[in-house]
Design a protein that fits this description.
Length: 641
């Protein structure tokens, strides 16, 4: 696990020093080792967290005649099989036992098709010193990050993190208004967009090639959903899930350093830990967070799982001691963009504690996306039915009536009213937008009032849909698969994997996700819908496959998710920041983007824990958190319009 960076420039006078600064900014991603190669046209570098081949895995690594140089971030789980196949041709000699060198020789054999052969999480750069070209690729689901920018059509800079990329002083810090629209609508923007207009993110499952100012990108992977007739027999599917889970977990347990697992008590992490312990000759180290606020705490279930499986279990407490300003700045600095998901806070706390015990941790991330675990999947199917039979005019009238009831003093059943409001709003959307606009950060009417007239005009001038461009053609998929595909390719790489990668690497901890192994993914995509959701039960087939391994409590408690009681963190300093960064700010961009009266209403509602309104306390506090992230990001990185 590492961080990579580099610059291609024909006349970049301080290129070597710039890349050295960029690499130093990635120190947290790889404190064990560093390397840099400076060629005629490009400099590439990496920071290394030593996991496999501790003795000879130093990067960059070259091929036999030194014509190719590679820097690599991630882990390749099938590298040993690939190495044997390459060696058998007689065309390749190896000087290390690392997975990095295997990628380099694969490139000699397969060129742009190289990433198709890799099973793992990765982002890498191969510099061809003869053709003066660069080839990049990112893993199928976006576990490892990759950002790049083109300057004046002749210079390309890249890095694992935005903050490192900004060490290249030619990179413009200009706000992308289209990306801002996505952030304020749902909290995330789709790749290749970032909140910086000049910085792009290589989408998951894509490669990029740069040669003499010409940039080409292409997709080497697109999820395909084709039901396997074999799985019409449920017992066949149960056995396949069970066998595949054990296989991919075993494959991802390969490590030359201490290894453990995150254990939340949910189905996915419990399944991974159970598969680990069944295949280990010693107690697996497991780790969980205990929240003081009971409504957010799953630690008791995790403890029961650990006792049932016989793991070496550790708990770390996240106290309700209020907001710490350093948490906000840490998230912004490491993500490099405003980040909606406040569970980044406990993820960093957990990662920093776990790092004292192990260097690698497995997690259950991706299980909901692969096996239809989110409630929104069922909700979207139901809302489709509402939209099919209820005219839009009726939906609009119902929405207005519900809003008035929810805002009336003493309104009861706020949660139910909130659900009905969200359902009517979603049903009124075009079908292709429901998958990603189901739970808006700001609903359209609120956002219309919040945005300044100038900002609304900019959005009006750009009517393109970047989410649909990312997803492409979804014809031939069932409706459930369309929604799942959206979450797999949009929300997973924009939220969950960002949080896990940046916060774990901030603590120099590697986290692996067996549920996102390509073999597990291919299996899940071949299952019929009725084995994913059945009679209201999510992850039906996964539950059935692992039920013999785990205690009943794993399957009977409600789904919580890894969230914090954000509304309880709103202490004095939190409220002061709302004033400093949003209401009384000297930042001219914030003033240009937002209507101050509307901003005041949003903040007042979010800070009032006793407000009934049409927003639950958690949603309202999340809106403030998003705005604080946005304003703090503009402040920290000196963003301009």
């Amino acid at each position: 696990m590492c961080g990579i960076c580099g610059v291609y420039s024909p006349d970049f006078a301080d290129r070597v020093e710039t890349v050295a600064r960029m690499n130093q900014a990635l120190l947290h991603r790889g404190p064990d080792d560093a390397g840099q190669f400076d060629g005629q046209m490009a400099s590439i570098a990496m920071r290394r967290l030593c996991i496999i081949d501790l003795a000879t895995g130093h990067q960059p690594i070259s091929n036999e005649d030194n014509s190719l140089q590679i820097v690599f971030n991630g882990e390749i789980y099938n590298y040993r099989e690939l190495r044997e196949k390459l060696a058998s041709t007689g065309r390749h000699s190896f000087k290390t036992t690392s997975d990095t060198e295997v990628i380099l020789h694969l490139y000699e054999e397969y060129g742009f098709d190289t990433p198709k052969h890799l099973q793992g999480m990765f982002a890498f750069c191969i510099y061809d010193t003869k053709s003066h070209s660069l080839f990049f690729a990112r893993d199928r689901f976006g576990e490892k990050p990759f950002f790049y920018t083109v300057i004046d059509g002749q210079t390309l800079a890249f890095s694992s993190e935005v903050t490192s990329l900004l060490e290249c002083k030619q990179v413009e810090r200009k706000l992308d208004l289209k990306a801002l629209s996505y952030f304020l609508h749902v909290g995330y923007c789709p790749s290749p967009l970032t909140l910086f207009a000049g910085i792009k993110e290589l989408p998951a499952g894509h490669w990029l090639h740069w040669k003499q100012g010409e940039l080409k990108t292409g997709a080497y992977y697109r999820p395909t959903y084709q039901t396997n007739p074999r799985f019409q027999r449920e017992e066949e599917a149960v056995e396949a899930v069970r066998m595949t889970l054990q296989k991919v977990v075993k494959r991802q347990m390969v490590s030359d350093v201490p290894l453990g697992a995150f254990l939340s008590g949910g189905i996915d992490s419990s399944a991974v830990v159970a598969a680990m312990q069944r295949q280990s000759g010693q107690k697996i180290k497991t780790f969980t967070v205990k929240f003081e606020h009971a409504a957010f705490d799953e630690s008791q279930i995790a403890r029961e799982v650990a006792e049932h499986l016989g793991t070496d279990h550790h708990e770390f407490v996240v106290t309700n001691d209020g907001f710490r300003e350093e948490d906000l700045w840490r998230i912004i600095r490491h993500v490099g963009q405003p980040f909606l998901d406040s569970s980044a806070i406990p993820t960093f706390i957990l990662s920093s504690q776990v790092k004292d015990h192990v260097t690698v941790s497995l997690s259950g991330d991706g299980g909901d996306e692969m096996f239809a675990g989110y409630r929104v999947f069922q909700a979207c199917l139901g809302i489709d039915q509402i939209a099919r039979y209820v005219p839009r005019a009726v939906l609009a009238t119902a929405g207005s009536a519900l809003r008035k009831v929810a805002n009336s003093p003493g309104a009861d059943q706020v949660q139910m009213i909130g659900k009905l409001m969200r359902a009517t709003r979603a049903a009124a959307l075009p079908k292709q937008d429901r998958s990603w606009k189901m739970g808006p950060l700001f609903e359209e009417t609120v956002l219309h009032n919040l945005a300044s007239p100038w900002l609304r005009q900019q959005w009006h001038n750009d009517q393109s849909n970047a989410v649909q461009e990312l997803l492409g053609n979804q014809e031939g998929m069932t409706r459930l698969r369309q929604v799942m595909d959206c979450w797999l390719r949009y929300f997973l790489p924009s939220d969950m994997l960002v949080k896990v990668d940046r916060m774990s690497m901030a603590a120099s901890l590697e986290v692996r996700a067996p549920m996102l192994d390509v073999e597990m993914a291919e299996l899940s995509m071949s299952l019929p819908d009725n084995l994913l959701i059945r009679e209201g039960t999510t992850k039906y087939i996964l539950r059935k496959a692992i039920r013999p391994w785990l205690p009943d409590s794993v399957f009977t408690h409600p789904k919580w998710g890894f969230t914090i009681p954000l509304h309880l963190f709103q202490n004095k300093r939190y409220r002061e920041l709302c004033g400093e960064l949003l209401l009384n700010t000297k930042n001219e961009i914030v003033k240009s983007l937002f209507s101050k009266p509307a901003l005041e209403r949003v903040i007042q509602r979010g800070l009032d824990r006793n407000s009934a309104g049409d927003l639950l306390a958690f949603h309202a506090s999340t809106q403030i958190w998003a705005l604080l992230n946005l304003a703090g990001w503009m402040e920290l990185f000196k963003v301009r319009l």
